[in-house]
Amino acid sequence: MKTLTIEKLTKSYAKETVALDEFSLGIDQGGCIGIVGESGSGKSTLARILLGLESFDQGQILFKGLQIPPKKKKDYRDYRRDVQMVFQDATSALNPKLPIWKIILEPLDNFKEVKPSFIKEDGLSRKAVASHLLEMVGLEREFVDRYPYQLSGGQKQRVSIARAISLEPSLLICDEPTASLDVTVQFQILELLKKLQEETNMTILFISHDIRAVTFLCEKIVVLKQGIIVDHFHMKDLYKKNRHLYTKQLIKVASLS
Amino acid sequence: MKDQLISIEHLFVTLNGSHQPLLEDVNLTIKMGEMVGLIGESGSGKSLTSRAVTGLLPKEMRVSGRISYGGNNLLELSDKERYKQLGIKIGYIFQDYRGSFTPFIRIGKQMTETIRTHIKLTKKQSEQLAREVLNEVGLEDKTIYHRFPFQLSGGQIQRAAVAMTLALKPELIICDEMTTALDVITGEKVLNYLAKVQKETGCAVLIITHDLAQAYKHTNRIYVMQQGRIVEEGLSEEVRCHHKHPYTKKLCSCLLALPGEDLITTASQVMVK
Amino acid sequence: MKKGNATLFNLPITTKLGITLVSFLLILIFFGEWIMPYDPFQIDMNNRLESMSHQHWLGTDQLGRDIFSRIVYGAKLTIGLGVITIILSVIVGVPIGLISGFSGGKIDAVFMRIIDAILTFPDFILAIAIAGLLGPSLTNIVIAIVLVRWIVYARLVRSQVLELKQQEYILASKISYSSKWRTIRMHILPHLIPTIIAIGAVDVGKVILLISSLSYIGLGAQPHIPEWGAMLNDGRGYFQVVPALMMYPGLAIMLTVLIFHLLGDGLKNRFDIRKRGLRK
Fold it and tell me: Where are the annotated coiled coils located (chain B) (predicted)?
């Protein structure tokens, strides 16, 4: 069974601006799926709908057999635990008034009964759990007591990732997580996501306009244009002749020749 | 050295009250008709360099060094003299395309007025010129000329900005992160038009960008900047394949390869159209 | 690195002045009993309407009461009432602003209509109307002003909440299954408190003015109570003969309002700078 099934998802804002048009997609557990599109392609709308931050007009979404967003309280709680997100703008995603450890632990504090598998010992202090998470995303333990404004863009994004993986979700949605970062930092974040995916077997839905980043991280690629899937293929078929014209254009622009 | 258009020599920029210079011993030359790239990450000082050239540095900054242009040191000129000497010879295109035009005045009117403040032309002639340059960047003058800026897409506005700059027949166009606010495909289009008119008019272009792929593709020569210094300079091909400085190496290694693409040797044969 | 942690020493001079003067006012309020040379209620018909002297620094009023003592006593009353009124307005206004801004929709619309309706009247007129209905007493005056003043805080909080709601960390909080109350406590209140304190400080001055005005027209403190506004009212009859009776309470009000303005303005700037530092 697919982990996530999206069927004919349609969402429009005003009468004439259709953000998503009969969007259908099935995703298995594990692996990275890349969604490529330019601004206005509806890719961010998709992320927000999957996270239950926005409603949709038609279609249905099934996550582990449950309708999204779930109606029952218990199901809703499980869904919140299982689906997490990394935002584009890490600066806006971290509350400037809180120290890093409080930011990271917000999800775990809401699920007191959850004992993440990366915590081996019992009775760790909350700060120790936070610093453990920081180490998992490649930051030093000392960062727990710092505040977001003392961190660089890449470090902030790492903190944001640490918060998202703290509940060990089975689906991690990343909406342009590298778009506002420097080239060298982008690369590090992508490597981190790849490593985390391999270690935990979570599914990553990677949304980006950067086809280079997507091909680096993902096995499967969906190309979105004005709310419609124009192309859907496996990485190894990237250069096949039957690629959609738009995909070819995107590749051509990204290439060096 | 005769064909040298502009040369920056030992440029230092320091914030008042600080000892750490923001730009340190920057040397950069642009020859006539050249496409030069200036790449670096945020905070490397690439925009600051272009601001020094155009005299847009904030007053709290101290500058030393020399920027030679046509026998003058631009840094020593007062604003008025600079304007007199340079006039319209250096064009500037910004990242934020919304700032290029006033939103509630028709594109055509803005263009002709700008042209006429700089060049002595009759209304008819300037309109003729505006329409010409619009066509040159691939915009239909019949429709665009009477449109308001808010009716155009980002790519169209950015192209119109290029057209505007071209109408003044500059010797140098500085593009500061021109495509960053645009879609990839649109950005590519704008760059292609820029390259086309560059070839036709023979002006020099300085492309300031953080995007390595863009610099490789569209420039002849590249300067790599890190923390206020130029760490490497060379032909695009050289910088890409035979770089020497560790920072350039780091930058280049962070450019993710498309599958099957070899970034070090020529990538051109591998690509499928 | 920690740009935001400005100490007492590198504050702008006006803020320092504000803080110093407010401390002075606080001393007056808490230790006034010891400073007062006379009982402010002590009537002494032998020494009526005396001018400034060593015995009576600011003279005496028409009943021979020491004006200086009455002003010191009045400081406690006037400023205390001002502060209490603001605290009550915050207690009423902030939750309404939070609920309104955070839930949006119908609840928001209802509150906003109520606020619009109240706003159509000038607040002074409305306060007079309410105080008039309730009858003249200091408690009623506080109630009347709170009923007018909570709007300031409700609107302030609502607009800030609407702005903060756009921040992605609020979304992240929702995704983390935090309850609404927890989100508010963790992510919204810490941002609001500085602004509320700053606006509140300025507002104390305004409210003191309002209380005194109401007392002056006889809706607040009764004439024998040395509330500054009431003192003004009290001295009205003798103004032509002994201007001091109205001058000193008037000056006291003016200075107090000014001091709170200085403090509030300073705090406002201070928190703004802090915010900028944090965003960087």
Answer: none
Among residues 177-236 of chain A, which lie with CB inside 8 Å of chain B?
Answer: 182-184, 186-187, 190, 209-213, 215-216, 235-236
Alpha-carbon distance A182 to nearest alpha carbon in chain C (angstroms) = 17
CA angle C264, C266, C268 (to 5 degrees): 70
> Does a structural domain hold residue C35?
no
Report residue C275 as tokens. Answer: 């915010």
The CATH code of the domain that includes C252 is: 1.10.3720.10
pLDDT of residue B163: 85
Indicate yes or no: CB of C175 within 8 angstroms of CB of A53. Answer: yes
Q: For chain C, how many structural domains are there in total?
A: 1
**Exposure letters B209-237 (e unless 16+ CB within 10 A, then b):** bbbbbbbbbbbebbbbbbbbbbbbbbebe
In-domain check, residue C1: no
- B223, β-bridge pairs: B38, B233
Asked if residue C138 belongs to a domain, the reply is: yes
Rounded to an integer, what distance in angstroms lies between the CA atom of residue B145 and that of residue B138?
13
Containing domain of residue C200, as a range? 14-29+66-270
Whole-number Å distance between alpha carbons of A69 and A61 = 8
Closest alpha carbon to A59 in A12, A3, A14:
A12
Cβ separation C1–A150 shorter than 8 A? yes
Q: Give the nearest partner residue to B273 out of A182, A235, A252, using CB atoms.
A: A252
Question: What's the ipTM?
Answer: 0.89
User: Does the beta-carbon distance from B251 to A184 stay under 8 Å?
Assistant: yes
Q: What pTM value is reported for the model? A: 0.82
Using the beta-carbon criterion (under 8 Å), do A183 and B210 form an inter-chain contact? Answer: yes
Q: Which subunits have 3 or more CB–CB pairs within 8 Å of chain B?
A: A
Q: Length of chain A in residues, anyone? A: 257
> Which tens digit of pLDDT belongs to each residue from B44-73?
888 888 888 888 788 888 888 988 887 788
Edge-to-edge strands, sheet with A66-67: A18-27, A4-12, A58-63, A66-67
Q: How far is CA C40 from CA A46, A150, C228, in A?
A: 72, 56, 13
Overall residue count recorded for chain B in this entry:
273
Q: For A37-61, how does the pLDDT look when each residue is reduced to its tens digit (9 = 90+)? A: 887 788 888 999 999 988 899 999 9
Cα B205 to chain centroid, rounded = 6
Confidence class for position C1, pLDDT limits 50, 70, 90 = very low
Task: Output the CA torsion A50→A55→A57→A58 (10° steps).
Answer: 40
CA distance A57 to A13: 10
C→A interface, C-beta within 8 Å: 1, 4, 167-169, 171-179, 182, 186-187, 190-191, 277-280
Domain assignment of residue C5, yes or no: no
DSSP, collapsed to helix, strand or coil, labels residue B232 as: strand
Looking at residue C270, its amino acid is R
